[in-house]
Request: fold
Amino acid sequence: MSELDDGKPVALEVDDVAVVLVRRGDEVHALRDECSHAAVALSEGELSRKGLECWLHGSCFDLRTGAPSAPPATEPVDVYAVTITGDDVLVDVTRAVNHPPN
Reply:
């Protein structure tokens, strides 16, 4: 976790899933690294007060829910569970935590 800069998105792949990690203070959030509007990497965007902002059209996504907080996106992005163990950040991409189980 100490390698994550506060407010700087980091791209990684977990079990063939593109993920963007964002550290905000003592919390680390994991979202699918693909804008639901334009299918570009959110990891290339910036953190704003509204959330993670897509670099292409300015859509913003809430770090906790994945919900778009600014247009043009209308669909959420997947949010994954994060567990911090010591300095390790573990991301569970087996199920998005912002979607109800089937």
